[in-house]
Design a protein that fits this description.
The chain has 287 residues and is an alpha+beta fold. The chain is built from 10 helices and 15 strands.
């Protein structure tokens, strides 16, 4: 069994002050993918390079106190890929890939933090640029290896993925173009070939020339119809958490062979380490 967790920390110093390390010691994941470190290397030195027996690997943003991703793991990777080759978004610390390759298998675990467009048109445009770049990057990786991307995708894919879907159709995170990007990423490649010219709701502009990503939303494979139980993020405004007015923004997106081995998923809500909840999925594979 392989236990893989994803959590947007909303600041590693903040999350650890709220009991994250103790919870990790109790839950004992093999790996945890983290997003929004909001820290630099000097801030982690001597404090957070390792947590609960897990060794950390990180991609920091150039801007202090902003973004940043990491992966803590019990297993030594065969390679570490920092960034994905984007001058614009690698500067923001949005992607790190650990490879666990063997002679008989190529396998990657990726921690990703997709941009939010909620602050205005400029950042929404940046989000669309990121989606346009990252889709073919994932497609190329998928051609070469098995992979699972864990992270804060900042997209609620379906109406069941947020409480107030009717009121958010024009808001970042639930825009038709964003949802169509996700639909295309999850669409089976063979089916895509039959109607590649009839793309959903404008996804052609942000999915590049590759059609039918063939990836699997692992949580939805296990729980295709859950609503309130599926939320992983709640606004700090008002009583959103108390009333469970949430969004499902955190995902495990895997190649079909890896996704097929998933047998249990859990969203931990007994404690709050940030405005996101940890999403843990157990897989029947080992590194």
């Amino acid at each position: 069994m392989f236990k893989l967790t994803s959590l947007n920390l909303n600041g590693i110093r903040s999350a650890t002050s709220k009991g994250l390390q103790d919870w990790l010691a109790q839950s004992v994941p093999d790996c945890i993918c983290v997003q929004e470190l909001k820290a630099q290397s000097v801030d982690l030195s001597g404090r957070f390079e390792d947590i609960a027996g897990l060794k950390g690997y990180f991609h920091f943003a150039e801007k202090k106190g902003y973004s940043g991703v990491g992966i803590y793991t019990r297993h030594a990777p065969s390679d570490v890929i920092v960034g994905y080759g984007s001058p614009e978004f690698d500067a923001e610390g949005r992607c790190i890939e650990l490879r666990f390759d063997r002679p008989d298998r190529k396998l990657s675990i990726i921690s990703g933090y997709f941009p939010s467009g909620s602050s205005g048109e400029e950042r929404q445009a940046a989000k669309f640029r990121f989606l346009a770049e990252f889709y073919p990057h994932l497609a190329a990786l998928k051609q070469d290896r098995e992979l699972v991307l864990c992270g804060d995708i900042n997209i609620a894919h379906q109406e069941i993925d947020l409480k107030n879907f009717k009121g958010n159709k024009k808001n970042s995170g639930f825009l038709p173009e964003e949802r169509a990007w996700m639909t295309e990423l999850l669409r089976d490649a063979e089916l895509a070939n039959e109607g590649a010219d009839e793309l959903l709701e404008g996804s052609a502009g942000i999915a590049g020339s590759v059609r039918g990503g063939g990836m699997v939303d692992v949580y939805r494979r296990l729980h295709p119809a859950t609503t309130g139980e599926a939320y992983t993020w709640w606004s700090n405004r008002g009583q959103a958490y108390a009333k469970n007015v949430g969004w499902r923004l955190d995902y495990h997106l895997a190649t079909p062979a890896l996704a097929a081995t998933a047998h249990a998923a859990a969203i931990y809500k007994d404690q709050r380490f940030s405005d996101h909840a940890p999403l843990t999925i157990e897989y029947d594979w080992v590194l």
